[in-house]
Specification:
The structure holds 2 protein chains of 2 kinds. Chain A has 2 domains: 1-60, no CATH class; 62-261, no CATH class. Helices cover 76% and strands 0% of the residues of chain A. Chain A has helices spanning 8-27, 33-60, 63-83, 92-118, 126-157, 159-167, 172-175, 177-197, 205-212, 217-249. The chains are: A mainly alpha, B alpha/beta.
């Protein structure tokens, strides 16, 4: 089975549905029509642009440009992690914490998958490496953002408990232990649930895409399993790294709870 | 037998303070709210950044690992906080003498924290702190929410502990009569200055 090529007319037909939705919004006074149309435009332009980038990248298969692309994706993911936190760490830590843990975890897992599991030639073959990294980062980003947000907001709310535990002679890691574990669970649960529900409740997008483009279902399924495992491991490790570093950062050299290191924390 | 030396301790806008707590001595600390009595105590326990030096006998605070320092210099915070559901989970060791001295029996360890009154929790927090065998006690309003009978029990318990271990006590209170009754001498924090700093 071959891929059926879509032409502009096909996409235009699909766009008609979105326009119809916008008209419906207008008639029902939902005031969403502007947003619907602008978002639809953004999807078109952004995806076309990334398509062009990928086309060039795939054609050249140049390690340098692939690295630049990978770093760009990481940079955006790191920014996103910071944006999703109510009380991020102030200064470089706010950006660096999530970015570093995602870098270590996502890149290590993706390179492992490329080198050892899939065995592409060369290992950085962009048709594999870029989508793989993209999926890794997308999910890791969620896990890290959730865990860090939980960590910092819980520490903020339970500062008195943490300080009480410190006065009783507990080490920082013990004083914030419950909160750390809670944050780890929060970060990891979505991907664990996704693994449990895959195929029954939801058909994962990647697999669906592969099947649509003509891959035999069982091949698509194997790739989906691989991706699921990679994402779970990558998210888990990144969450552990980010939570540990974040928890450590909440205490200074003398293990004093240092909430002034969070943004929006006011004067301590 | 420990002596706590506080030398030029500086926190926020409080004038640097110096004083000593000698073995077995009870020193009262009073002053209007918001002057920074609690801040001073937290600084001595190394819970907040501070200038100056705090020494326990000949050991500088900075040379002792922080958790160990806080174990030795026990700070009782004015409000008690609990992290586990059961009271017993917060106690590494259970000393029945002291439990009885505060009017509880061994069943207290099975109590749910959420069902304790604030007075019960305050007394239990003191027991929890004493279980660490601190060498110095910093008490931030330890009897503020207690009924007269419990106040007497707490005062007796601390006096006993002070005698047994020759532990110096710094006692913050708004109750002038209580300090007059208990303290060997008194310090007063007012206008951001500590008065009565004679060591």
């Amino acid at each position: 089975m071959n891929v059926i090529h879509l032409d502009m007319f096909d996409l235009g037909m699909a766009a008609l549905l979105v326009v119809l939705l916008a008209v419906l919004s207008l008639l029902m006074r939902l005031q969403l029509e502007r947003q619907i149309l602008i978002s639809a435009m953004r999807t078109t332009v952004q995806l076309l642009l990334i398509g062009l980038v990928l086309k060039t990248l795939f054609a050249s298969s140049n390690l340098f440009w692939i690295s630049v692309m990978a770093m760009l994706m990481l940079a955006v993911a790191g920014w996103e992690v910071m944006q999703r936190q109510k009380r991020a760490f102030s200064g470089w830590w706010g950006y660096g914490l999530g970015t570093l843990s995602m870098f270590v975890s996502s890149f290590a897992t993706a390179v492992f998958a490329l080198l050892v599991v899939i065995g592409t030639e060369p290992w950085y073959l962009p048709q594999y490496s870029i989508p793989l990294l993209g999926m890794m980062l997308g999910n890791t980003m969620n896990g890290v953002a959730l865990a860090l947000d939980r960590l910092t907001s819980s520490a903020w709310q339970q500062r008195a408990v943490i300080e009480t535990r410190l006065t009783l002679g507990q080490e920082w890691s013990e004083a914030i232990g419950d909160i750390s574990r809670d944050s780890l669970r929060t970060g990891m649960l979505p991907i664990i649930n996704a693994m449990a529900a895959a195929g029954i409740v939801s058909l994962p997008g990647m697999m669906t895409g592969q099947i649509l483009s003509g891959t035999p279902p069982l091949e698509a399924v194997k790739y989906q399993i691989l991706i699921m495992f990679m994402i779970a491991a990558g998210t888990g490790f990144a969450t552990v790294i980010a939570t540990w570093l974040g928890a450590r950062r909440l205490f200074d050299r003398r293990q004093r709870l240092s909430l002034y290191r969070l943004s929006d924390s006011g004067v301590e | 037998m420990s002596t706590l030396n506080v030398i030029e301790l500086a926190v926020l806008d409080i004038q640097p303070v110096s004083f000593s707590l000698h073995p077995g001595e009870c020193v009262g600390l009073s002053g209007p709210s918001g002057e920074g009595k609690s801040l001073l105590l937290r600084a001595i326990a190394d819970l907040i950044p501070h200038g100056g030096t705090v020494r326990l006998d000949d050991e500088d605070c900075n040379t002792i690992p922080p958790a160990q320092w806080r174990r030795r210099v026990g700070l009782l915070l004015p409000e008690s906080h609990w992290w586990s559901d059961r009271i017993g989970d917060h106690f590494p060791v259970r000393e029945m003498d002291r439990v009885a001295a505060l009017g509880f029996d061994e069943r207290v360890f099975d109590w749910q924290v959420s069902r304790c009154s604030s007075g019960e929790k305050q007394r239990l927090a003191l027991l929890r702190l004493l279980a660490n065998q601190p060498q110095v006690l910093l008490l931030d309003e330890p009897t503020a929410s207690l009924d007269p009978e419990s106040v007497a029990r707490v005062e007796t318990l601390i006096a006993d502990y002070r005698q047994q271990s020759a532990c110096p006590v710094l006692w913050v209170s708004h109750d002038a009569a209580q300090l007059a009754r208990l303290a060997d001498r008194q310090l007063r924090l007012e206008h951001k200055q500590l008065q009565g700093q004679v060591a």
